Input
Amino acid sequence: MATHAVTGPPAQEEPAGGGLPVPELDTAEVGRWRAGGGGLIELLALARERCGGVAAVRIGPEPTVLVTGPEAVQHVLARNPERYVKRSHRARLLIGDGVLAAAGEAWKRQRRLLQAQFTGTGMRRYEQRIAAAAGTAAGRWARFARTGETFDVGEEMRLFALDTIWRALTGHPLDARTARELASVAAVVAALPSLPADEVEARGSVAADLARIDAVARHAVAAARDRETGPDGPGLLQVLVDASSTHPEYTDRLLRDELVTLLVAGHETTATTLTWLYLLLDRHPAAREEALAAGPEGSPERREALQALVSETLRLYPSAWLLPRHAAEADTLSGHAVAAGTDLLVCPYLTHRDPRLWPDPERFDPGRFTTPGGRPAQPGAYLPFGMGPRACLGTQFALRESTALLERLLPLQAPVFDSVPAGAAYSITVRPDGPTPARLVPAV
Output
């Protein structure tokens, strides 16, 4: 195991409050990283490699603490969420005061209202809508197979996931016009890393896309206020609109923010995961064959195997790859002193690729999730949707829609990629950094 030795200047006197100083990545190595034009993930990976599961790195003028060790991850996210708080969200320009960006009592109220919609009985009401969206996607793929036309796998996954969450929110299947307008959601998400630091300038850079998103949201909220029920019955947006009669904080603006938040969280991550999965299966076709051979269509064995494909994809490309937190008070984290006011980055992406936790971590191996002892038992070692009270509300929804689509597509068609992306782009999600053109051929 890697030690927690300091690779920079000699450690200073132990800080007040107990605990050793957090080991810091040598500033010379940070300088070489800057000079080489490396990405953030390369710097964080270097800090983890040199300093261990709790490491300091100077991304800005003050050290930021990187957290990747399972015990430390659990301490920050699950055991002490009131001490390590979420101050803002990288997508606030898009999602406003929706539940992902909200804090304090507002966040508690918003989460409480939504939570029941994604567990137990709440999830059962979405089963038919998920199945219908999967059937629509399967119909498109059948056409692609007949015509031999080239299509983009990532765009297909985005369209399926957007159709699914739109049905859940409004009770309506996604129509072509709404799909075109909501392409602006993906456009803003992709633009976020390169937007100006100034909020006004940033908003101006994506003003046209935000206007299209706002127009769709206004129409959907107005329809819910008029109780225009879709063919699938009322959707989750109706629950939010009804809540506004007793919760005055649910203004039209907050309803817009919550709707857009659910659109972003409900389709961007799922679409990205499914795109990565198909790219991985292209490189590892035996994994597809093993999943289909696990049991007959519709069997628990088949579903478990499909779930393992999704779980292993999420290990390599977690939906929540980076979780910023802020130390509201001083603390001792895995034996290291963390001062009040310190910024932290919990990085599931690096935790999931730690060879001390996951043998041969770069290898795609769905068997880790079907073989007893195949995955680490420590809480905090696997957290593709985060953990603790701010873990993703829609985890079960995302997993169910992913397996529902694979149940329809995996036995029937195998895409042959004309080209594949060279790497990954790290934004709100970790997504392929280029298009994914493919054609369909009959499955063998």
User: Anything to note?
Assistant: The CA atoms of residues 165 and 266 lie 6 Å apart. The chain has one domain: 68-442. The chain is about 50% helix and 10% strand.
